[in-house]
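Suppose you are handed a protein chain with no further information: no name, no annotation, nothing but its sequence. What can you learn? This example shows the usual starting point.
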Amino acid sequence: MTVALRQRTSLAVLRVRDDVIVLQTMMWPDEIRKPDFGAADTSDAKPAEVKMANMLVETLAGDFRPDDFADDYRAALEELVKVKIEGGEVKRTPQSTKTSGEVVDLLAALQKSVNAAKAARGESNDEDAKPAKKSAAKKATKKAS
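A reasonable first move is to predict its three-dimensional structure. Written in structure tokens, the prediction is:
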């Protein structure tokens, strides 16, 4: 079926979900693009960084459970509306203009995240998964002849 939303005609389908009829909009065939992308280019990444990223993805992979997430914005908005209805005064939240100038070491952050995820699952941390330490670069000096 087709429906008009926001001054535009869209394809739609009616589905039943938990005893409720839901209208879901769909894309037109010409709006669907073929997924034309290759694997991520890891030529600039160090092998330890790629290994750590793969470990992080494997550690955090799992089934999506929407009940594990909450809409904080909606809860705050509902609380604000409730206060306004009851005649209370709404307090403004101070806006922070301060930014963190902290530089984060990506490899160390990935290692920390992987270790935390493993600890949460009760696994032991592998010693070989530690990030490689940087060594001071030695410059060769040329002898004048």
